[in-house]
Specification:
Length: about 250
C-alpha cells in the first residue's frame, strides 16, 4: 500500500467532533473541513473548546483546550460516553490536555510525524494497542453484554414474573440468574447466554406463547426487549434455547 493510500485510509477512519456548549452535544466536523495541516490546526485556534477524536475502531480521544472551562470539561466528559456507544461501543476513552499529549494522539492530529520517530505509517507500532482484531471484537461484544446485564440488574421485574429471553441489537439471548452472598447481602447477577454456535433459527414468524414482552427505550431508541414469563406456572418449554444448559 502506498503512503498516499495509507494516509487516505487513516483519514477515513478518523471522526472529529466539537462539543457545542449551547446544546451540550458533540457535533461532527466533516473531513473536508479539516485543514491540510491536520486536526492540530483546529485545536490550536480554538483553545477554549473540547473535541472528540474517534480512531475507528481503536480509541476515543477527548481533548480539552488550555482555556476550556471546568463546566465544559465536566459536561463534555459526561456526554462522550453516549457518543462512544453510538459509534463504537466498548472503545476506550482517553482524556488529553494540552502539554500531556501521548504520541498516538500527536500522530492522528498531525502534531508529530511518525517518520521522525522511525515509525512507518500503517505498521503495528503506529497503531494503538486495540487493533480491531477478532479477539478485540469479541471483547467489545462481551463488554456490550455486560453493560446490558448491569442495566437489567437495575430494572426490577414485575411481581410474579421472571426474565426468559432478551432481544438486544438484533440478537437473542437466554437469561441465566445467579445469586451470591457478598458482605452479608444477597446479590443477583444476570448473565446473557447467546444461541449455541451453529444453531440456525429458521426464517419466519414466531409467537411468544405464555411470554409477556416489555420494551426498554433510551434516548428515543429501542435498546432491548424482554420476554417475561409468569413464575407460578413456569414449566419447561421447548424454546430456541432448549439446547442450552442454563446450569452451566
Amino acid at each position: 500500500m502506498t503512503s498516499d493510500a495509507v494516509e487516505k485510509k487513516e483519514k477515513e477512519s478518523v471522526k472529529f467532533f466539537k462539543f457545542n456548549k449551547d446544546t451540550s452535544e458533540f457535533e461532527e466536523i466533516p473531513a473536508a473541513s479539516i485543514p491540510p495541516e491536520g486536526i492540530k490546526k483546529v485545536l490550536q485556534e480554538h483553545r477554549a473548546d473540547s473535541y472528540a477524536i474517534f480512531q475507528v475502531p481503536y480509541i476515543v480521544w477527548l481533548y480539552h483546550g488550555p482555556e476550556t472551562s471546568v463546566q465544559t470539561k465536566f459536561v463534555s466528559a459526561r456526554t462522550i460516553s453516549k457518543l462512544r456507544d453510538d459509534i463504537m461501543i466498548g472503545a476506550k476513552i482517553m482524556t488529553v490536555d494540552e502539554g500531556s499529549e501521548p504520541l498516538p494522539f500527536k500522530f492522528v492530529t498531525k502534531m508529530a510525524d511518525p517518520a521522525d520517530f522511525g515509525i512507518e505509517k500503517g505498521t503495528a507500532e503506529y497503531k494503538p494497542a486495540y487493533t480491531g482484531s477478532a479477539e478485540d471484537l469479541t471483547k467489545i461484544e462481551k463488554m456490550s453484554l455486560e453493560k446490558v446485564s448491569l442495566l437489567l440488574e437495575q430494572i426490577p421485574t414485575p411481581n410474579g414474573f421472571e426474565r426468559e429471553v432478551i432481544i438486544h441489537d438484533n440478537s437473542i439471548y437466554a437469561v441465566k440468574n445467579a445469586r451470591r452472598s457478598f458482605m452479608g447481602s444477597e446479590i443477583e447477577e444476570i448473565e446473557l447466554i447467546p444461541l449455541p454456535k451453529g444453531t440456525r433459527v429458521e426464517s419466519g414468524t414466531y409467537m411468544a406463547e405464555e411470554l409477556s414482552p416489555r420494551l426498554y427505550f433510551e434516548n428515543n431508541k429501542l435498546l432491548l426487549i424482554e420476554l417475561l414469563r409468569k413464575t407460578p406456572e413456569r414449566v419447561k418449554q421447548e424454546t430456541l434455547f432448549n439446547k442450552i444448559d442454563k446450569n452451566a
